[in-house]
Amino acid sequence: MAEANAAYYAARDPLGAAGDFVTAPEVSQMFGELIGLALADLWARAGRPEAAFVELGPGRGTLAADALRAMRTHGLAPPVHFVETSPVLRAEQAQRVPQARWHAEIATLPTDRPLLLVANEFFDALPIHQIVRTPAGWRERMVAFDGATFVPVPGTVPFDVIVPAALQDEPVGSIIETAPAAAAILRDLAGRIVAQGGAVIVIDYGYAEHAAGDTLQAVSAHAYADPFAAPGTRDLTAHVDFSALAAAAGAEGAHVYGPLGQGAWLDAIGLPRRTEHLAAVTPTRAGEIESARRRLSDPAEMGTLFKVLAITAPGWPPPAGF
User: Fold this and answer.
1) pLDDT for the residue numbered 15
2) Does position 14 have pLDDT exceeding 90, yes or no?
3) Residues 6+ apart with CB under 8 A from 10
4) Separation in Å, CA 320 to CA 130, 195, 201, 214, 276
5) Average pLDDT in the 297-317 region?
6) In terms of Cα–Cα distance, which of 185, 204, 200 is closest to 23?
7) For the stretch 277-300, what's the b/e string if a residue is b when 16 or more beta carbons lie within 10 angstroms of its beta carbon?
C-alpha cells in the first residue's frame, strides 16, 4: 500500500473532476476558511504566540490558501510549512501558497515555536496491516501474485495473541485492521505539540472505536476499483481508527478532543452562518453554496463518516466546537 500510493501521488494530481476524487477543500472555500478561523481563535486565546502553520499532505494547497486568508483577517499570518513528497502536487501548492516551505518528512518541521497543524485526508492513505480469521485461527493478510494479478492470501504465522479479547470470536473471514504508521506519526506530532505548544486538527473518514471490518479500498475516476489491481495507478485508502490516534496522542500527554462528526463540528464553528453570508453576497450562487454546505455537513454526505479529532498542548485552551 505504501509503495503503490507513493508511485500514485508522485505521478499525478488526483483531485477534481478530471482526477480520481474530490476532497472537502475542493467542495467549498468554506471548509478551509472555517479551519483557519478555528485555528486563529485558538491561537488568540493562547496568547498570540509566534506560531507556524503546518499541513500534512496539502493536496493542491486549496485548504491552506483558504485557511491563511481567513487567519489574516484576525491578525494571524504565520510561516507556512507543507509536508509533501509529490513533485506534481508541490507545483500545484506553490501556485496557491508560494510562501510555503516544503518538507519530505515531519522530522524537519520547526522545533522552536508552537505548531498549528492540519491533516485533512492524510491518515487514510497511510499503510495498514490486516489480520484475517481463518479456520486455523487469526493470520496476517498478505499479498501474493497468482501469475496475472495480486491477490490477498492469509499468512502462516499465528496472530491470535494480538487480537483484542472482544474480537477473538469473530466469524471466519472477519478482518481486523491496524495502522502502525498512523499511530507512530500521530504520537510524534503529539510529542512535538506537548514540547512546543500548539494544536493538531485531524479530519478524515473512519470510525470512532476499533471494530472488525475490511475497509481497504481503491478509487479511480470517481468510482470504487479493485485495490489489488493496477498498483500505483489508483488511490488506496482505509478508514482511520480515531480511537488509536487518540490513544497515541494521550500517551504523549497531549489533551485530546473528539472525535466529532465533521458536520457537527463545522456547524458548531459557524458553517450555517458562513453559508448564509456567502449566499447573500453572491445570490446567483446561493444554490451552489447550499449544495456545498449539505455535502460537507449532512449525515448522508460527509457529515458523519468524516470525523474531526483535535489535540492541544497542556496549558492551551480547548479548541472551538468540541
Assistant:
1) 83
2) no
3) 85, 86, 87, 88
4) 35, 22, 11, 33, 20
5) 97
6) 204
7) ebbeeeeeeeeebeebbebbbeee
Residue showing cell 445570490: 283
**Which residue do the cell numbers 473471514 mark?**
173
Rounded Cα distance between 122 and 58, Å, is 8
Domain definitions of the chain by residue range: 2-126+179-312, 129-178
Exposure on the CB side of residue 44, measured as CA atoms within 13 A: 14
Q: Where are the alpha helices (DSSP H) in the chain?
A: 2-10, 24-27, 29-45, 62-72, 87-96, 180-196, 242-251, 262-268, 271-281, 286-297
Q: Residue 42 half-sphere exposure, CB side, CA atoms within 13 Å?
A: 30
Q: 2-126+179-312 has which CATH code?
A: 3.40.50.12710
Amino acid, res. 134: T
One-letter amino acid at 9 equals Y
Alpha-carbon distance of 163 to 212, in angstroms, equals 10
In this predicted structure, the answer to whether residue 18 has a pLDDT above a threshold of 80 is: no
